[in-house]
Structure formats: C-alpha cells, structure tokens
Write a sequence for this structure.
C-alpha cells in the first residue's frame, strides 16, 4: 500500500485489496458449509490455468525426486572418484532448484483454484504440498549421506550441511504462509455484491473516477482525501482510499449523503441534478438494508 498525506496531516493509505468485513466472512463460511449456490467457483479459464500449473509443478517434482534417486543409488557409490564431492554438491543444488520451482507453480495454482478451509486435511496438504515434496526430496538423501561409510567426515559435513541448508531454503520458499481459500474468495464475492456498479457510476459521474476514501471505523465512504468527515481524529489516524468495490469489501455500506458539501471540499463542481443523485444514493443504501450509519461528523 502506497502512502501520502492529507491536508489535515492524516496519512492516506491506498488500499489495493481490502480485508472482507467479519459479516462477509461469516456469510461466506455459512455458504461454503451448506454448499449453497452463492459459493465462489473459479472461472473455467482460471481452472484450466491452475490445472496447467499443477501439471508443470508435478513434472518438476518428479524430476527432482528422480534426481534424488540417481544421487542415492548411483552417485553415492562413486566416493572414490575425484569429481564425486563436486557432483554431489551439484546434485543437491539441482534437486533444491527443481523442488522449489515446482512449488512456485503449485502455489500459483492454489491462488487460482484454492481448497476449502472447511476441509482442514485437504486444505493443509494442498497448500503445503511443496514443503512435503521438499522433505521427500532431501530427508532420505541427508540420512544416507551421514550414514555413508565410504565418505569421510569432511565430505559428510560439506554435503550433509549443504543438503540441510537447501532443504530449509526450499521448504521456506515452498511454504504457503497466507493460503487462499474458497471461503476467502466467497467472502470477497459477498462483500462485492449489492449495488457496487451503481455506486461506482455515481462516484465517477461526480468526480471523474472510481475513487473514494474512508476511515477504519466509519460506516460510509467519501469523495476525496480532503473531505472533512475523513479528516476528523480517528482510532488509527489514517485515511484509506481505493475504488468503490474495495470500500465495500472493507465493510463500508455506501456513499455519504453529504455529497453537496463534499463536492465543495474536494474541489468538484456541483451538478444541477445533485438532489436526484442524493436521492438515488439514499435509495441504494436503503435497498442494501445496511445498519444505520454513524453521523457524518464522526469516524
């Protein structure tokens, strides 16, 4: 998120993707649990792309494990060769690269076609499969290096230590620390439902772009960073900005009704049909049946 400062001195934080509100998350979890029609599904294009990524990932992993097998059943028997230790080092690095590259493709696939949190075993395995593969590709090799009677202590220290380091690196790079899920995507979908298109059209008509601002505790969003409502003291003393869809994802219920006032504060012309626009916003907010917003003078 990029930051700038409003005239009041409050930080303006541009939000590319907001965290869905708790209400959206609860509705999403319930929808996924009951397998309703409202559950998010990947598009056919995303599904196809995810399948391709997974195939590529499996190919890299198969080659990595094949390289491990060659190293164990052939290379570790060549200890008397002068090139042995260098070949072993090269094999360890190669296995690490293959396992890690495969994991990156697998992680991309999971972003496009995620698992459900409501299926914890599958969710864990699908998201951490790269780490599991890294362990499979290295742990047996590490054990056999240290148990190899034909290698001296120095060779074991170099090769075994390198293999451990590469395993840790591959594991960290393969781990999914913030996995996507069907519930997360459904929450985004729930948050973005409603009258977003209508609101975006109104904001664009008034200001020339789909761009609004809000505060963390405010119920509605506003027309610019200089609107007085967002410049009052707030809990984190920050103003958030983004498009209308992002504002709704963040839990905001609609556009402020203080449109005429904010057009002046933001330096925009007041259109002749401003009363009709305000009436439209009032109707949209009533249609969404949102909780009664706090007074515009509070954040």
């Amino acid at each position: 998120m990029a930051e700038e400062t409003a005239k009041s001195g409050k930080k303006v934080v541009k939000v590319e993707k907001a965290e869905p509100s708790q209400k959206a998350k609860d509705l999403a979890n319930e929808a996924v649990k009951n397998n309703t029609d409202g559950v998010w599904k990947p598009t056919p294009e995303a599904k196809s792309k995810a399948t391709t990524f997974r195939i590529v990932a499996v190919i890299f992993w198969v080659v990595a494990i094949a390289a491990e097998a060659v190293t164990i059943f052939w290379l570790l028997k060549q200890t008397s060769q002068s090139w042995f230790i260098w070949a072993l080092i090269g094999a360890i690095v190669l296995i690490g690269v293959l396992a890690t590259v495969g994991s990156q493709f697998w992680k991309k696939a999971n972003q496009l076609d995620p698992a459900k949190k409501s299926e914890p075993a599958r969710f864990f395995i699908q998201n951490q499969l790269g780490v599991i593969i890294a362990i499979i590709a290295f742990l047996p090799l590490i054990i056999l290096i240290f148990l190899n009677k034909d290698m001296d202590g120095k060779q074991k220290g170099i090769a075994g230590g390198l293999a451990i380091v590469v395993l840790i690196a591959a594991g960290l790079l393969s781990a999914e620390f913030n996995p996507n899920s069907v519930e997360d995507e459904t929450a985004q979908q729930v948050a973005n439902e409603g009258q977003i298109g209508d609101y975006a059209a109104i904001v664009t008509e008034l200001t020339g772009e789909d761009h609004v601002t809000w505060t963390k505790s405010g119920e509605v969003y506003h027309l610019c960073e200089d609107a007085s409502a967002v410049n009052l003291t707030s809990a984190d003393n920050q103003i958030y900005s983004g498009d209308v869809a992002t504002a709704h994802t963040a839990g905001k219920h609609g556009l402020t009704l203080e449109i005429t006032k904010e057009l002046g504060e933001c330096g925009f012309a007041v259109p002749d049909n401003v009363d009709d626009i305000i009436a439209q916003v009032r109707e949209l907010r009533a249609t969404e049946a949102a909780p009664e917003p706090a007074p515009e003078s509070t954040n």
